[in-house]
Amino acid sequence: MQMTGNSSALAQVANREPPVLSSEGLTIRFGGHVAVNNVTADFYPGTLTAIVGPNGAGKTTYFNLLSGQLPATSGSVRLYGEDITLLSAPERTRRGIGRAFQLTNLFPNLSVLENVRLAVQSRAGLGLNLFSLWSDHREIIEKAEHFLHRVALAERRHEIAAALSHGDKRKLEVAILLALEPDIFMFDEPTAGMSVDEVPVVLELIHHIKAQGDKTILLVEHKMDVVRSLADRIIVLHNGYLVADGDPAEAMASPIVQEAYLGVGVAEHV
């Protein structure tokens, strides 16, 4: 069973523009286990979609299929209408899909600034040249420092990434994602492991990206207060199935979503 919300804002977006990113019948099997099962969904520019569900629902696996970290067993992924199912994760990144991971994905032995500088260089088409003279790329350094300011890490620019706290590593990963300037932002539990003081910095950044109005944001998040404050739309996964998709207020009030999120009593609906 799938519930669809009546959000007028989402309907207007859907009617005005084609989806930026889509999955159709997306499925992945690990041996006899189906982790994501026939998931079809469209994601539109200017919207933030939260993907929720109990542990083991398939949320991060679905993210991995969309961003190319895992190959689909069947089904397809489309970007601007083009089938990208067989493209690698780096190629999808070059085409505008930006992904922040549940576990930090950094160059641990490089400085905070060098991590972001490499992302800026990559976005500028200059490659990941670790040995280029910084003085040759003053503009790139300044741009990297701009993104560090946005995540409140400018004062730690010369520290080695491995020495950062978990929360600061998450902020650094967000800075790297910002530096790639993607069309699609994918955040996998961006506030996980952060202190209460650190969370607002990341949430404000996501608010800012959303406010630009031209980016597509996908967010996996367990904190329902975060979901309610950010999402235009909620998708609920359970046991690999998409069991609900719609307006946040209606989605969260639906019995099927309450059951799916609590992880009980869903089998008869699927």
Helix content bin: 25-40%
CATH class of the domain at 1-92 and 221-270: Alpha Beta
Mean pLDDT: 83
The assigned structural class equals: alpha/beta
Give the terminus-to-terminus CA distance.
6 Å
Number of helices: 10
Features:
270 residues; alpha/beta; Rossmann fold; seven-stranded mixed sheet; four-stranded antiparallel sheet; 10 helices; 11 strands; 23% strand; globular; disordered C terminus
How would you characterize the overall build of this protein?
This protein has helices spanning 8-16, 59-67, 89-94, 112-123, 138-150, 166-180, 199-211, 224-230, 248-253, 255-262; strands spanning 3-4, 21-30, 33-43, 48-52, 74-79, 82-83, 97-100, 184-188, 216-220, 233-238, 241-246. It has a domain at 1-92 and 221-270: 3-Layer(aba) Sandwich (Rossmann fold). The chain has 270 residues and is an alpha/beta fold. It is built from ten helices and eleven strands. Helix 4 (112-123) packs parallel to helix 6 (166-180) and helix 5 crosses helix 6 (166-180). Helices cover 36% and strands 23% of the residues. The strands form two sheets. Strands 1-11-10-4-9-8-7 form a seven-stranded mixed β-sheet, sandwiched between helices.
